[in-house]
Amino acid sequence: MKASFGRTGRNLARGAGRLRLLFLMRGTIRVYWRILVAGFRRQSAYLLAAFGGLVANTTFGLLKVAILFATVRAAGGELQGYDVALMSTYIWVSQGLLGSVNLFGRIDIADRIKDGDVAVDFLRPLDVQAAAITTEVGKSLFNLIPRGIPSVLIGGLVVGMALPDHPASYLLGAVSILLGIAISAATVYLVVAAPGFWLVETRGLQILYMVVSGFLAGLFVPIWIFPKWLEMLAQATPFPSMMMYPVDIISGRVDVTESLVLLAVQLAWLAGVGALGQVLTRAGRRHLEVQGG
Amino acid sequence: MADSLGARTRPYRAVLASRARSQRSYRASFAVDLASSMLVGVIELAEIWVLFHNVVELGGLEFSQILLVFGLADLCFSLADMTFGHCDNLPTYLRAGTLDVFYLRPQPLLLQLVTSDISLRRLARAAVGAVALVVGLTVNDIAWSPAHVLLLLVAIVSGYAMFAGMFVWAGGAQFFLVEGAETTNAFVYGGRYAATQPASVWNRPLWAVFGFFFPMAFTGFLPALWLLGVEAPLGLPDWVGWCAPVAAAWTWVMALVSWRLGVRHYQGGGG
């Protein structure tokens, strides 16, 4: 009797623990959802900036059309699986993603780490890394509206482009774009913001990131027309996961099976880059020194 | 006269010398800056090289010939970026209201802004352009004559002036755009990208924008064609490469008009 009563009590306690965990998780999801929405809203205040970005995207897009179409034609109309129509899709989707995928290496939290404001962030009941990345993703998602979609529309109407054969490409492509945005934010956090716990000046890292990421993400030239060794080098980095793979999936350059493989690669990079960023953040928190008072 | 010139330029020389010294004082940081700046140049060249990895000829030019176009354009851009590139910081000054400080000094605003900084790290990038230019001049079969040497010098000076003018033009436009700074990037940095391409692949609208309105084709492509003895596209005359100084003068007319309008429009930071 006594034993069975004890067991019931234990079960009850376990059930309550599970319930509490569920509430906690729901609360956490809600907090990060709010941060995401706040990032999205914040970006909507900079419409003129978004317009400037669209002008820049379109101008660069037209120059890319000129040089890359000429390359495809000089190669006899087909280059590593790219014809003119598929090249056009690559150009305009990648230009459209430029406002959302972070290839510039600027992230708000970097300034807060540098001037010590991050000490306040550590006092909040939130993970500093997760909150910073969520804010960036929210801002990026907003940018798809004034910069992403118009770029693709302008390209489609003015130049024309190929569309994927399989409707699943759109869904998988959307997931892949979201992952690409998150990977870019997490990588910028890892290589530009987090070293700020130890370095005084991270501008050099930001410039280095900007130079390398665009090239290896396939911003100017698809990495598939690189020489083999350079293509492999690019694939050994998270950069193609930010832009090249999402473009490949949504343009229908790869079929559904290959898309799933690319999505798995993206997930692995997100997990890896995220975990490393978490390690650095924890170590940085212990190392953090804030001057003045 | 020489004396008064020396006296008049002394404040600018003092500022520039101090900026140059301050950049070199943190040696490790300066070395990283130099290295990443050089990498910028190398990757820009690689962007063109990977295309030629797939095809022999683009827009009627081979890779060795494109090296000449790239070298001329990128060398001029890097030098202009080093000396005029910080005009890009104008939106920051405008937002923070710190531009007003310049108004307190008895010197012309543009001259102060230009001489307020010099980015020595960009020398590394200029070096990449210079190497590409020298290689381009050596490997190509150029029928050297005094006229060829003269055109080379004219092209470098005019190309530098054109890119510098682009920075000033963009600076003037910032007074109106402030948050929309990226709009001008489309033409300043887009212009650099355009300048290193074989312009023969452009369509007519691109020629209108980057061939003539912002005369980017005159910084590298058209002078290089004359040096190489290759016919110009669009039925342009052979001597069009010699028109680079005219293009540079046009850029500066635009730049100074834009700057003047911008400064007149400025109402102060409200401090």
From TrEMBL, chain B:
Keyword Membrane: yes
Keywords from the UniProt entry: Membrane, Transmembrane, Transmembrane helix
Entry keyword Membrane: yes
One Pfam family of this chain: ABC2_membrane_6
Segments passing through the bilayer: 28-51, 63-80, 123-143, 149-170, 206-227, 239-259
Protein name, UniProt field: ABC transporter permease
Native source organism of the sequence: Nocardioides immobilis
